[in-house]
Amino acid sequence: MPTPTKVKILRGETRPSRVNYREPLPSSDLPRMPADMDAEAKVVWRRVTSSMGRTRVIRVPDSDILRCYCEAVSRYARAAGSMRGAVRS
Q1: pLDDT at residue 89 above 60?
Q2: Among the listed residues 70, 81, 79, the one whose alpha carbon sits nearest the alpha carbon of residue 47
Q3: Which of 6, 34, 70, 78 could form a disulfide with 44 if both were Cys (CB 3.0 to 4.6 A apart)?
Q4: 25 falls in which pLDDT band (50, 70, 90)?
């Protein structure tokens, strides 16, 4: 994987042939939360985007992966709750 231009410059690279000043940069916008997620998944989405969004790590292209993560956490919480209830009965 090529080293990002910003990293090359921070490391002191000055040779024009090694620095891509026209490197494409992803949008810094946060992905929009899908309206059809369940309420618990929306809570997870808000928690992740509020903490990770400031770091600019999560971008629009990550929205599908983020949705899968949020829905998986929501389903796990429901399944764990069901199992706790089943064990006590």
Answers
A1: no
A2: 70
A3: 70
A4: confident
Which residue do the tokens 């309206």 mark? 35
- 80: tokens are 């764990």
Instruction: Report the alpha-carbon distance of residue 49 to residue 45 in Å, rounded.
Output: 6
CB count within 10 Å of CB 20 equals 13
- Report which residue type is found at 17: S
